[in-house]
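User: Predict the structure for this protein chain, please.
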Amino acid sequence: MRLVFLGTAAAEGIPGLWCGCRVCREARKRGGKDIRRRCSYLIDSDTMIDFGPDSFWQSQTEHIDLPALRRIIFTHPHGDHLSPEQLYYRHAPGFCVDVPEYPLDILASKETMRELVRGFINGSAVGVDPTQVFDYLRLRPTLVKPGVWTSSDDVEMLPVPASHALGMGAMIYAIRRGGRTVLIANDTGDLAPESWAMLEGVKLDAAVIECTMGLRNPKYHLHLGFDTALAFRRHLVDMGCLATDAPVYANHFSHNGGGLHDELQEKFAPHGITVAYDGLSVEI
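Assistant: Here is the predicted structure, written as structure tokens:
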């Protein structure tokens, strides 16, 4: 299983659109790994996790063949992770001359699915029956349920409720393919006991853990900072889900966290954690 980090920032991106803080000023000067798009991922060549406002940019720079995509797994309905308009451009005729015959699988919680439909109906798909909108766009929706393994062909996923965007169906996922399993845990915060319990017995080959609040707010809990991200990894190890030497990637950074890429890497390196950056490609 190959995992590509298509974006590694929180909602504002880095540099923040309107921000003149030290991190944003330096990111504009330095470029490279300090420029961060909104968070999403590519698994192999046919699966994306989240599809937000930077999807066009990401598909071009990372050479993603979107017509060959088979599924999108959504973590939650915030606008930096879910952009209904980008999916509406799949409509043919109109925006798409030659759309694939097979449907694109959409996997999400009922709350996220509801927001996706609302975006279609309130946006471009005016006048379309809400019950028909997925067929209209050649999408095949599958509702995921907390703690229940779900599959799309050979991709399996275990959705676990995040302590983020409460009431909006936010999930983190253990994703399995070809005998390898990775935990995708951006926008998670501290998990509730019942969420940790859902991960019991799950053997992870790697983990991606958010560090939204970075170095400035290291003990933050609604999102994770440096200290709470380390505690999250430690909990996975203590549960027996993750080996002490398994690859771990810190991700989903905000400029409000106060760290540039090299500063974050300097802090995480002694703990054996890699700081993700846009375009990082790893074999799980």
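The chain has one domain: 2-283.
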